């Protein structure tokens, strides 16, 4: 039996891609951003992709679009800003019942899927409202009210073979209680695992993920190019399967001074470790900036998993051997996107804060880097999907006996 998936707050589609790789059918998506919607539609040509603010969609629109043959599974990652937990000092700890989470609940109430899965940041476990209620307790309570059994857990991406230290919270809501709502660990980062973990695979490193991609200097590369060498390991072979051309591998347009700064850095070093004469300058000035951000432009170690890929990773990480930031494709590799998955829109855009300040909202889109960094790693989603789909099929087979 093939199960159908609707992705809400879909972004570029990493979450639902994992379910597709596990054998499910992606029937649709709801996403507010134009470029992310274009990426989703291009890579899922048979899906119904609604580019809209979900808050503006009426119940009738949702039912008319997806209610004819309702999805078996609904996925979603309501933005964490809705829970006011990203900035602990912002003094605005909203109730999730007044946030975009309520829209996730609404879609579930209307379409009544067998499974709903919400992804979010790990800190959601600790977040409290202004009245000191745990946000996770409110979320689980609201899902129970519409008829679901609830399980939640923080999963680490490296435990499932993704070359990136990335923890995410997953809340699984099921009509029928699942025996094992979360997948067993399949990988370890230890080169010599303990005897009890000898059955686990070794998690790929950053270099395992990207070493076959063409060497680029700053300002080099194209949106569409050719591979120059064959896959160097199983991880690369899996992600290159089905891709004859390399997409989204274009280096940032770094200045000569920034390249010199990167050249001065060893693995583990960041902007705060560079020589004085290469320190960042104040914006539009010639004086040195008094602020240094320790997490900006850190050169990654090749023989370890990468740090968490955030939405703005083009300014976070420096290639382990080349004097530039990662390309969008390198980020996609670290996130475990297959190479045939093509990201639409521009590689980068001007700061969203600047666009908002200047009223240039028509230019405010999720660039390729944002789309990659915001995504659920597809191979992590695939592990979750395989585990849940197996149980759904077992339940279905049992009900037919």
TrEMBL record:
Tagged with keyword S-adenosyl-L-methionine: yes
Keywords tagged on the record: Methyltransferase, Restriction system, S-adenosyl-L-methionine, Transferase
EC number(s) recorded for this UniProt protein: 2.1.1.37
Catalytic function, reaction form: a 2'-deoxycytidine in DNA + S-adenosyl-L-methionine = a 5-methyl-2'-deoxycytidine in DNA + S-adenosyl-L-homocysteine + H(+)
Entry keyword Transferase: yes
GO molecular function: DNA (cytosine-5-)-methyltransferase activity; DNA binding
Top-level taxonomic group: Bacteria
Active site: 80
Any one of the GO BP annotations: negative regulation of gene expression via chromosomal CpG island methylation
PANTHER family: CYTOSINE-SPECIFIC METHYLTRANSFERASE (PTHR10629), DNA (CYTOSINE-5)-METHYLTRANSFERASE 1 (PTHR10629:SF52)
Family that this chain belongs to: Belongs to the class I-like SAM-binding methyltransferase superfamily. C5-methyltransferase family.
Protein name: Cytosine-specific methyltransferase
Species this chain originates from: Candidatus Electronema aureum
Lineage, top ranks: Bacteria, Pseudomonadati, Thermodesulfobacteriota, Desulfobulbia, Desulfobulbales
């Amino acid at each position: 039996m093939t199960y159908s998936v609707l992705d809400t707050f879909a972004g570029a589609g990493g979450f639902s891609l994992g379910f597709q790789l596990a054998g499910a059918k992606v029937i649709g998506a709801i996403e507010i951003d134009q470029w992310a919607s274009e990426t989703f539609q291009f890579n899922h040509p048979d899906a119904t992709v609604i580019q809209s603010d979900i808050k503006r969609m009426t119940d009738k629109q949702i039912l008319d679009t997806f209610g004819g043959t309702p999805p078996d599974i609904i996925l979603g990652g309501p933005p964490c800003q809705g829970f006011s937990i990203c900035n602990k000092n912002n003094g605005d700890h909203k109730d999730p019942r007044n946030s975009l989470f309520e829209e996730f609940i609404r879609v579930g109430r209307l379409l009544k899927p067998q499974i709903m899965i919400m992804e979010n940041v790990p800190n959601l476990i600790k977040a409290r409202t202004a009245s000191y209620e745990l946000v996770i307790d409110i979320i689980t309570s609201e899902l129970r009210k519409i008829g679901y059994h609830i399980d939640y857990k923080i999963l680490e991406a490296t435990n499932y073979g993704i070359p990136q230290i990335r923890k995410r919270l997953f809340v699984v809501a099921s009509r029928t209680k699942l025996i094992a709502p979360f997948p067993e660990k399949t990988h370890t980062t230890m080169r010599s695992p303990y005897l009890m973990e000898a059955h686990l695979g070794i998690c790929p490193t950053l270099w395992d993920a990207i070493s076959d991609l063409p060497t680029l200097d700053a300002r080099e590369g194209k949106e569409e190019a050719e591979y120059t060498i064959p896959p160097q390991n199983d991880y690369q072979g899996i992600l290159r399967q089905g891709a004859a051309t390399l997409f989204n591998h274009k280096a940032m347009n770094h200045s000569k001074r920034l390249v010199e700064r990167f050249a001065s850095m060893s693995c583990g070093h960041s902007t705060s470790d560079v020589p004085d004469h290469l320190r960042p300058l104040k914006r539009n000035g010639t004086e040195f900036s008094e602020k240094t951000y320790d997490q900006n432009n850190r050169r990654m170690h090749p023989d370890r998993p990468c740090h968490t890929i955030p939405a703005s990773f083009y300014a976070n990480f420096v290639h382990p051997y080349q004097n530039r930031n990662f390309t969008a494709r390198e980020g996609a590799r670290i996130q475990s996107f297959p190479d045939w998955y093509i990201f639409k829109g521009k590689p980068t855009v001007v700061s969203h804060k600047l666009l908002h300040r200047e009223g240039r909202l028509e230019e405010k889109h999720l660039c390729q880097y944002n789309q990659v960094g915001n995504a659920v790693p597809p191979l992590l989603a695939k592990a979750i999907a395989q585990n849940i789909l197996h149980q759904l099929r077992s339940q279905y087979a049992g009900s037919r006996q």
